[in-house]
């Protein structure tokens, strides 16, 4: 954290000196530029072309994790899947067939537009409820919004872990290699609870 803050401070000084402007420190954020290559960006939506703030805001408002997937590839071996805890560059995966997509695990609610007096959760899972219910029924576990120590429960992070494991499976990649060249990957349901946890 100290090293990151030192780099952030150096970046601010250099930009301010070069452009003779004052930088808003709150707009400097870590960005996953390429796999295993993090940088900083001055994330001002007024000056960044296509800032994709509708998605990226969920990494700036609080703690989050997301799945990065390349929709298509020109490579013989599909391997365009990673995890991040920050916003990403649109060319995170270099491919001649398109840009990378990021799927935040949680969505942070805009409480300023809420008219309800009920206490709302800070974040909600970015998951299709119908699919989560089907998965819960298939594996015989109860879904919880946040990870719990309770037995026979599973949470959004467990679903992300399952998806990530499947997409990294050599068997899966070989079986669906032709399909992976043309569209987003499809993830099969686990056969049972043991398969899900494995």
Quote the beta fraction: 15-25%
Query: What percent of residues adopt helix (DSSP H or I)?
Result: 25-40%
Low-confidence spans: pLDDT under 50, at least 5 residues?
none
How would you write the strand order of the largest sheet? 2-1-5
- Average pLDDT figure: 85
Number of helices: 7
Counting helices, strands and paired strands, the structural category is: alpha/beta
Order of secondary-structure elements: HEEHEEEEEEHEEHHHH
Largest sheet: 3 strands, mixed
Strand segment tally: 10
Distance between the termini: 33 Å
Shape: globular
Oligomer: single chain
List the helices and strands and how they pair.
Blueprint: H1 2-19, E1 28-34, E2 37-42, H2 53-60, E3 66-70, E4 81-84, E5 87-88, E6 100-104, E7 106-108, E8 123-125, H3 129-139, E9 142-143, E10 153-154, H4 156-167, H5 170-175, H6 177-180, H7 193-197
Parallel strand pairs: 1-5, 9-10
Antiparallel strand pairs: 1-2, 3-4, 3-6, 7-8
